[in-house]
Amino acid sequence: MDIKDAVKASRKIVIKIGSNTLAKADGTQNTEFMASFARQCKNLIDAGKQLVVVSSGAQVSGVSTLKEWARKKDVHFRQALCAIGQVELMAQWRKAFDEQGLHIGQLLFTKEDFEDNHRSLNIRNTLFTLADEGVVPIINENDSVSTDEFAIGDNDNLSALTAILWSADLLILFSDIDGIFTDNPKTNKDAKLIEVVDSIPDLRKSIIINGTNSFGTGGIETKIQAAEKTTVYGIPMLLANGGTENILDKLSCGQAKGTLFTAE
Predict the structure, then answer these.
(1) What phi and psi values does residue 49 have, to the nearest 5 degrees?
(2) Of 259, 251, 223, 250, whose CA–CA distance to 54 is shortest?
(3) SS (H, E, C) the chain
(4) Are 55 and 20 in contact (CB under 8 A)?
(5) What is the pLDDT of residue 15?
(6) Which one, of 59, 48, 173, 45, lies nearest residue 103 by Cα?
């Protein structure tokens, strides 16, 4: 199965958008990307797909709003930034999807929500109801109340948990890289893109994993963790570059590359 076939065969798709995709170089919101992404989502919905979006960017949006807090590292200021930024983030998503005639719904989770059976069932039912009614759920971790003890920690794993709970057919992770490479392509020009991963244990033995980027909390490791979670449940995962123009459209018609983790 290639990327085009994976998208075509999937009716229920979870799409995770990382902070680097949602932030411009100066750290402010990339509203142009959000408008374009919403239009591409409409194309998929018109083709009979149901979508759930996991969106990072609350802290980025908070910094965009209160620039004087940008350098504050205290956890209470960071959580406060997320509280402010989440409002701004959803306002921009609402505007972007409204231009396509689509409604959105917001869901904020902590790790405890997935560990409690009653809460998990409620999440699942809400996701089914929203998607069945043509509403696009937009999910983020509740960073304003999450601490290290109760945090999922990154939206790669959050999107994987969401895909499993919703019984999705495909998880797409958008980051600032084209996929999994044998080494960091930003520092090693000889690094090769790995287009299909059939065995994650074999992948771990064959690549060099580096650290996180400047805006996000994840890295290659969290993306592999997400793939480990979903593929066990028969859900393939696709990692691609969210910064590529019209990336969703191009993936759908086989004009963009990425790394496809096949389901077990």
Answers:
(1) -85, 155
(2) 223
(3) CCHHHHHHHCCEEEEEECHHHHECCCCCECHHHHHHHHHHHHHHHHCCCEEEEEECCHHHHHHHHCHHHCCCCCHHHHHHHHHHHHHHHHHHHHHHHHCCCCCEEEEEECHHHHHCHHHHHHHHHHHHHHHHCCCEEEEEECCCCCCCCCCCCCHHHHHHHHHHHHCCCEEEEEECCCCEECCCCCCCCCCCEECEECCHHHHHHHCCCCCCCCCCCCCHHHHHHHHHHHHHCCCCEEEEECCCCCHHHHHHCCCCCCEEECCC
(4) no
(5) 98
(6) 45
Q: Which residue has the tokens 């917001």?
A: 106
Which residues lie below 8 Å from residue 166, measured CB to CB, with a gap of 6+? 12, 14, 52, 124, 127, 128, 131
Give CA separation, 94 vs 1, 31, 194, in Å. Answer: 34, 11, 35
Residue 141 pairs in a beta bridge with 109
Q: Which residue is associated with the tokens 């759908």?
A: 252
Q: What is the pLDDT of residue 191?
A: 87
Q: How many CB atoms lie within 10 A of CB 93?
A: 23
Chunked into runs of 10 residues, the chain (264 residues) has average pLDDT values of 93 93 80 96 97 82 59 67 83 96 94 91 96 96 59 82 97 92 83 93 81 50 93 96 95 95 84
Under a CB-based contact definition with an 8 Å cutoff, are residues 96 and 35 in contact?
A: yes
**What token pair was written down for 92?**
């921009």
For residue 101, how many C-alpha atoms fall within 13 Å in the half-sphere facing its CB? 4
- Amino acid identity, position 221: E
